[in-house]
């Protein structure tokens, strides 16, 4: 995808005397929080300061100038395509405010990846999130208040952050509406609500049900191959942020969360506000590289984490993320921090890990150079032989999806319509994982899996399985998502009850005509044939044929999808 470039010349950067920026503890504004922005950067011989005006993107603007923070701490003006002009790829992302509409169009692929209810430059939804969601649990974090909530109609779990009305918070909301991150390993923002009564904004995020990465690490013994896959996902997420000219700068192990752990853990960057504003999370200093000015402060503050850390200086640099990410991966490998923080200047990765034979360590060493100019960029990390290998398919992740496909060989047309509706509505997270598996296996990107593409996936199947390639040749992406999905995720009593209510239009019966009103691309005549074949409350009254499926029969028919039998 090409990026439009402005024909106007960039503004000249006015040189000034070398000068450092000091931020007192109570002041948390950063360089991205002002309309006129001051960004510190460093060159080999001199330190300069560049000032660039940031302009809000209007609906008619396609280009917005921003400052790009380079790996070497050098700021260069770049052009960013306005979010309103991005083409929208097809993916499995579900948006809570549009679930009914998406389910009605029938396709599990025709779902835009970006949320559309709050466009750049538009206002937040003028109603509290509590009108659509109910509280499940609360998570309070110092300056942040986050609540796990569930959509009242769809049952989708989300994470809602409450942000009080104040200048700094409004700047964050404005920046969210200008720059919407759009990458599968970064949590999506589904909605932004505004509650005038409680005087706060409510940002609705995807919910990562696996919890923070540190919690997942404590309760799981991760295999070496699994760590490599997680490493690749984290690099992909941050490389995308860097490609936009931004950096995170406050990464910790809990900046990432587990979105789905049904096979290889699906990882997302879940703490994204630091990309827009410094948040000073707990223990973030432990992940700062040796060149950070904060390491010159009193080391006694590091050991006693109950004391507030004396944060005086914050510098934006993509090289900070590279160092922090390598430290996180070392924690996954060893279950401990690689050094005592007061000894950070003595820590030399090239010496400590020189004898390690595992192929992950050469890349980590390149990411842990003390000199930020020598650290490998994340763009180059993705081209490293180790991460290229980690990107490749892991056959074990396909065993259960292919097993689920075999279970669906007797599925009727009615089953296909109903499960497509249920999965799109209630198992969007699961579908995202399956979508990633399919796109990884589809090497020639033709939308189906050939025999050559299936061969490496089934060659290493365990002895207790006897999957045949002939059962899956030429399966399309749409078919894979429907058949490979774990149906138990949508056969819960809550899902069945809610879906029956939606499909029956609260009439306590489901008919082919009502199904077609909700799932618009279903063929009513084929539905009637299935109703007739399986005695789905088929009756004749006054010579008039009536197809009426009640809730009990509806649930029984769905649960018996592997071997459908006529209902007596």
From TrEMBL:
Matching Gene3D superfamilies: EF-hand, Transferase(Phosphotransferase) domain 1
Gene Ontology MF annotations: ATP binding; calcium ion binding; calcium-dependent protein serine/threonine kinase activity; calcium/calmodulin-dependent protein kinase activity; calmodulin binding
Domain (Protein kinase): residue spans on this chain: 122-387
UniProt-annotated stretches for the region Disordered: 1-36, 113-135, 289-315
Xref: InterPro entries: EF-hand-dom_pair, EF_Hand_1_Ca_BS, EF_hand_dom, Kinase-like_dom_sf, Prot_kinase_dom
Cellular component, GO annotation: cytoplasm; nucleus
GO terms of biological process kind: intracellular signal transduction
Family the UniProt entry places it in: Belongs to the protein kinase superfamily. Ser/Thr protein kinase family. CDPK subfamily.
Protein name: Protein kinase domain-containing protein
Keywords, sorted A to Z: Calcium
Sequence ranges assigned to domain EF-hand in this UniProt record: 429-464
PANTHER family: OVARIAN-SPECIFIC SERINE/THREONINE-PROTEIN KINASE LOK-RELATED, SERINE_THREONINE-PROTEIN KINASE CHK2
Source lineage: Eukaryota, Sar, Alveolata, Ciliophora, Intramacronucleata
């Amino acid at each position: 995808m090409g990026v439009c470039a402005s024909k106007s010349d960039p503004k000249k950067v006015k040189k000034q005397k070398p000068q450092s920026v000091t931020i007192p503890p109570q002041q948390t504004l950063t360089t991205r929080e002002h309309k006129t922005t001051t960004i510190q950067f460093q060159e080999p011989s001199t330190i300069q300061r560049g000032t660039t005006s940031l302009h809000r993107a209007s609906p008619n603007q396609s280009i917005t100038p921003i400052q790009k923070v380079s790996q070497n701490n050098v700021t260069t003006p770049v052009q960013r395509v306005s979010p309103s002009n991005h083409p929208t790829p097809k993916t499995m992302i579900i948006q809570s405010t549009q679930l009914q509409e998406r389910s009605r169009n029938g396709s599990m692929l025709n779902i835009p990846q970006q949320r559309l209810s709050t466009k750049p430059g538009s206002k937040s939804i003028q109603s509290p999130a509590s009108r659509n969601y109910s509280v499940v649990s609360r998570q309070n974090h110092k300056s942040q208040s986050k609540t796990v909530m569930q959509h009242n109609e769809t049952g989708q779990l989300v994470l809602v952050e409450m942000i009080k009305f104040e200048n700094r918070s409004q700047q964050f909301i404005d920046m969210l509406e200008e720059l919407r991150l759009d990458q599968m390993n970064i949590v999506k923002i589904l909605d932004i609500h505004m509650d005038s009564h409680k005087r706060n904004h409510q940002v609705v995020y995807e919910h990562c049900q696996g919890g923070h990465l540190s919690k997942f690490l404590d309760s799981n013994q991760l295999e070496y191959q699994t760590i490599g896959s997680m490493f690749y996902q984290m690099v992909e997420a941050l490389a995308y942020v860097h490609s936009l000219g931004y950096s995170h700068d406050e990464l910790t192990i809990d900046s990432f969360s587990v979105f789905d752990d049904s096979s290889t853990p699906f990882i997302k960057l879940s703490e994204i506000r630091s990309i827009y504003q410094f948040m000073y999370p707990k223990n973030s200093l432990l992940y700062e590289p040796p060149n950070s000015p904060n390491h010159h402060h009193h080391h006694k503050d590091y050991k006693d984490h109950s004391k507030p850390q004396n944060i005086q200086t914050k510098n934006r640099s993509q090289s900070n993320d590279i160092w922090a990410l390598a430290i996180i991966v070392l924690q996954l490998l060893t279950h401990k921090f690689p050094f005592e923080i007061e000894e950070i200047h003595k820590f030399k990765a090239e010496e400590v890990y020189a004898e390690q034979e595992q192929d992950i360590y050469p890349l980590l060493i390149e990411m842990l150079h003390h000199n930020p100019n020598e650290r490998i960029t994340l763009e180059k990390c993705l081209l490293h032989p180790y991460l290229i290998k980690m990107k490749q398919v892991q056959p074990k992740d396909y065993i259960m999806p292919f097993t689920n496909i075999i279970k669906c060989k007797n599925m009727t047309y009615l089953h296909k319509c109903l499960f497509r509706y249920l999965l799109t509505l209630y198992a969007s997270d699961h579908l995202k994982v399956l979508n990633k598996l399919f796109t990884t296996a589809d090497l020639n990107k033709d939308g189906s899996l050939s025999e050559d593409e299936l061969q490496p996936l089934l060659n290493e199947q365990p002895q207790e399985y006897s999957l045949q390639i002939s059962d899956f040749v030429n399966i399309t992406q749409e078919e894979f998502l429907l058949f490979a999905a774990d149906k138990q995720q949508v056969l819960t009593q809550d899902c069945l009850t809610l879906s029956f209510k939606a499909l029956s239009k609260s009439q306590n019966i489901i008919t082919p005509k009502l199904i077609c009103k909700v799932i618009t691309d279903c063929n009513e005549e084929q539905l009637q044939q299935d109703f007739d074949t399986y005695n789905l409350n088929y009756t004749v009254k006054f010579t008039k044929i009536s197809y009426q499926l009640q809730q009990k029969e509806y649930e029984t028919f769905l649960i018996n999808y592997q071997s459908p039998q006529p209902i007596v």
